Amino acid sequence: MRTSTNYFSSSTSWSFHFVALFFVTLLVLVSCRSLLAPNFSTPHVCRRGQPTSSLDTEKRRVSMLHNEGEAPSQTAFASDNHGSREFINESNEKRDTEFMHRGTDKENLKIQKHSKLRRIEEKLAKARYSIREASKIRNLTSTLQDPDYVPHGPIYRNANAFHRSYLEMEKVFKAFVYEEGEPPLFHNGLNKDIYATEGIFINEMEKGRYYRTYDPDEAFVYYLPFSVVMLVEYVYDRGSNYNRDPLGLVVKDYIQIISHKHPFWNRSLGHDHFILSCHDWGPIVSSYVDFLYNNAIRVLCNANTSEGFKPAKDVSFPEIKLMTGELTGLVGGYPPSQRTILAFFAGHLHGYIRYLLLHTWKNKDQDVQVYEEIPEGISYYAKLRSSRFCLCPSGYEVASPRIVEAIFAECVPVLISENYVPPFDDVLNWKSFSVQVAVKEIPNIKKILTGISDRQYSRMQRRVKQVQRHFVPNEPPQRYDMFHMTVHSIWLKRLKIHIQDQ
């Protein structure tokens, strides 16, 4: 009580202390308001996985005000030192700045990712403009310079536009390959036999020599690296009466994993993702995920529009049969003067189109030589190289390796199919170097082919030789070859898409 009596014994002393108490209280209030203000001005600080209790929030606030592992300074709050007002104001400004900086790290990261996506879309917009301007030039030869090859001639829909597009792709295009999944189902493919092109592409993307980026925020597209061929080999039960559910469930589970682990699938609903399959079941396997089937870019050998292939977003992929996997000695044939057979085909009875062809022409005409089994002692490839036209009917599915076999043999391919989109159709003018025969015209094949003059045939055969470079697989890949043309087709589909991060 004595202390209280002395404290109030003088009005002057009381007034002095009252004023001092008022300013101290005001100073504390200003300090508290300054410290707490960022919590209201930056609501993004509270995010999933961060502490939300009042104690945790206070601990987190203090930890953000100071370097981690460093004890809070004794002068971080109120001080009795002379000139404390200036010190506290300066300290609070420093703390506020540091608090806001640290508190917005995740927001800054999100902004940076959004900025990267925006830069990608800006690059795509510039490429679209350049290609559009190039397409206005209708010359048969590209006006652009290139040390390796200048596209020219009627084999292209627009040589200048294609060349500009290809150069733009080489300059900016990047693809991210998801690393989830283990071989042999993922990141692995067969490099030989009828599905060789699927394995060649998968293995080349794994090597990362061209177009691959390991930063997903820099990617224009995202590759789902599963092999349908390997799924059939290791997952499919051959005694299950064609039950493809186990294959589809593997793909469904895989997309669920990458969509939970990465933001990119959900960001675009799959529009900037792609798969690649040369197996006949590629379209069926993709149908187990709606967004994969309807949105994603599907690179398919089985490019059948009656079975869901969408030329606006999907890519037709060449099917090549490489019995040993060797990539040398694939091309070459006799000159037109030494091609004594008008038309040639040899193949098993697969599907109704081949049935009609064999029923109509098998062992019927020496000019149109059609075999179900090639006679013993006769070379299949010698027949290809000796024929003016090579018949390429669809089998059970629309795609056939005979199209590329004909091109390699410098034999003009005759496409006999329904609802088939041939490879690289968005760039190549197939009518300039091939003959397309409707199924109902199979009985008239000889009449159609003999109606092509020698001069016209010579032009078509020269164009077949010119277009070879776009179908040949190389190790390592060479500009404008099968691998690069496939990537270019994917690039063209990506150019049609505009992704916005919400």
UniProtKB/TrEMBL annotation:
- Which superkingdom is the protein from? Eukaryota
Q: Name one GO molecular function term.
A: glycosyltransferase activity
Give a yes or no for keyword NAD in this entry.
no
Q: How does it sit in the membrane?
A: Single-pass type II membrane protein
Task: Report whether ATP-binding shows up as a keyword of the record.
Answer: no
Q: Principal localization?
A: Golgi
Q: Which GO terms describe its cellular component?
A: Golgi membrane
The Exostosin GT47 domain covers which part of the protein?
Answer: 170-450
Q: Which UniProt keywords apply?
A: Glycosyltransferase, Golgi apparatus, Signal-anchor, Transferase, Transmembrane
Localization recorded for this chain is: Golgi apparatus membrane
The record's listing under InterPro entries reads: Exostosin (IPR004263), Exostosin_GT47 (IPR040911)
Family recorded in the similarity comment: Belongs to the glycosyltransferase 47 family.
Protein name (record): Exostosin GT47 domain-containing protein
Organism source for this protein? Answer: Sphenostylis stenocarpa
